[in-house]
Amino acid sequence: MNVPVWVNGELYDPAQASVSVFDHGLMVGDGVFETVKVVAGHSFALTRHLDRLKLSAQRMDLPEPDVEAIADGVRRCLAEAPGWPLGRIRITYTSGPGPLGSDRGDQGTTSVVIVGEQKPFPLTADVTVVPWPRNERGALSGVKSTSYGDNAKALAYAKARGGGEAIFGNLAGDLCEGTGSNIFIVRDGRLLTPTLASGCLAGVTRALVLEWCGGDEADVPLRALYEAEEAFLTSTTRDVQPIRLVDGQVLPAAPGPITAKAMEVFAERAALDADPR
After folding, report:
1. Does the pTM of the predicted model rise above 0.85?
2. 216-217 vs 110-117, strand pairing mode
3. What φ, ψ does residue 246 adopt, rounded to 5°?
4. pLDDT at residue 2, rounded to an integer
5. How many of the other CB atoms lie within 10 Å of CB of 113?
């Protein structure tokens, strides 16, 4: 079944959906995006994702997206989708068509909603630390930008070495994030995750884990990942995923007791509220 694609307020057959080749989301990565989980035909935490889309756009000095229209686009696409056990929504918002350079155009923005099936992640993750640090002081630090070249290169590097996710440190030498995930570690019995000042994305699942399961935000040296008692990744489509290996080094438990509790609590709370505010 071909699920229609929503582009600027209209539904199109996937084979017919298109944006301009001059769109700056394509030309220079001048846009922002969100990935939203779909469970049994229903989006999860859509309000939080749309709030973050607005914040990312604001931080890139893009016009404010019409999130009500985008939410309607999500509903219209989901109404045409089959009942996958797990799916994902990709929302993309760009500055629209522009000239052959970094200057933005004046033809209006582009909004796209695509819905597809999501295969479950493995029960545990093997991660690879990459040699390129995040710049926590960069203009796009913490922005969910379509400029994902760093992530694509890092993930390819990790997979070539047997990892399923790449992990970044930052310029300060602290733990930061994955290419599409946040990271938590257990150290001296404490559940810790890097602060937003580390340059990591303010993940929706990260925030819910902190709210529902506890834990502290802290600047954590990158080397602490190798010494962790437990560690896990969080993301929209993986929820809470225990880390088994770090650069081929086996962690003591995957999941350990704190991770297992976080997995349990997150699953229970998420099942009770599909749009936690």
Report:
1. yes
2. unpaired
3. -125, 110
4. 84
5. 26
